[in-house]
Amino acid sequence: MAREAADKIEEPLDWRRRFALESRRFNAWWEGYAFDASEVRALLAEEALSDRAPAGPPEQNIALSIWGEDRLEPGDPAWTMRHARTLGVTLKARIVVLGAGLGGPVRDLKNGTRWKLSGYARIAEPIKSLDIIPYDAALSRINRASADGGISFFELHRDPDPAMMALFAAELVKANAPFAFVDFTVARRGARLRPCFPEPWSGAPRLADQLADLIDKSGFRVNDVVDETRAFLPLVSRGWSHWRAAYARVRDITNRRQRAEHLRLLAQYAHLWAERFDAIKAGQLQVTRILARRKG
Question: pLDDT at position 93, please?
């Protein structure tokens, strides 16, 4: 478990855990016992993971075990920055992220920009270190029209009323501020995509034109619609390499009922991503970025 956590957290340890690592190294030398640096780093990485990723429902834990790096969808820093660069905002802009997962996209932006970042996600508890809060708590903090721009990762298709989610995004940014909506869209009419979005990972993608029209009617002016499917597919393929490790972690769960539930969800999650991958390859499902500006 500890070594798997170390694999999941690829960035260097922070100064507190580096200090802890060197303290344990010194103690081993002083007491005269063997010191395994890789094992200690793995344990510290596991502590870091437990500190920053609040406990969530089983389906969230399954997604996290596959995509890693505090992500609930396929992604990596290059994918995040690809969309961030389209905003064209100032060096120290205030940017809001919808669909922040457990912090992966926000951490990417924090490492790659000097922006002031905040985020919203479908999580139970806030992640204070990254300024990410649940949507349920949004009304307690929302600062109307205060952000200079924003990015939404796979949130519109997931919401029962995507127009309300787009309106929420419009409330967060200033007039004429850019907002990039990255989401699943239906590639052609009549595509059968229900097996791709079962409960508890349900959703209802729309045609790209329909989604753009919905965003336009929610307070934005659509500037550009780009098919990002080719850039997205390698992220899915890369995640498949983690299925074996995820299965091993589930088998280590001691509670029989919890283990059975996690195994069921893991099998269901594997099936839905196989369905999505096939739908993408068949030209039925795609990933689209819609770049818009807040009407003023």
Answer: 96
